[in-house]
Automatic annotation (TrEMBL):
Membrane as UniProt keyword: yes
Keywords attached to this entry: Membrane, Transmembrane, Transmembrane helix
Transmembrane domains' residue ranges: 9-32, 44-62, 83-102
Protein name, entry field: Transmembrane protein
Length: 105
């Protein structure tokens, strides 16, 4: 199914962008954190931290600590491509989320 590391890269980009966009739009819509208590960097930083906390732990653990427990079909190149894709997706998701939030709100 996932025969090439570029498949993992694209899947990581899509997953990172979708999750980060949902967090950015949702948190800006709900006003978390409150506007009078936080500046825009904090309001955009919190969704990025949350999406990174959900996206990166398992691939990093499979890359380092759980190396012996991972599937023999999951190569280091696949994990590197997945991590790179998720990082690119988080950056793109912030841009897309801010664009959608300004259009909707």
């Amino acid at each position: 199914m996932d025969g090439h590391p570029s498949d993992r890269l694209v899947a990581g980009v899509l997953a990172g962008a979708l999750l980060t966009t949902v967090f950015v739009v949702g948190m800006l819509y709900l006003g978390i954190p409150a506007e009078h208590h936080a500046n825009m960097a904090t309001r955009l930083g919190l969704p990025v931290v949350l999406s990174c906390a959900l996206l990166f732990p398992m691939p990093l653990l499979h890359r380092t600590v759980l190396r012996e427990r991972r599937s023999e079909f999951l190569l280091d190149e696949d994990l590197n491509a997945m991590l790179l894709g998720r990082a690119i997706g988080v950056i793109g998701g912030v841009a897309l989320g801010v664009t959608l939030a300004t259009e909707m709100l």
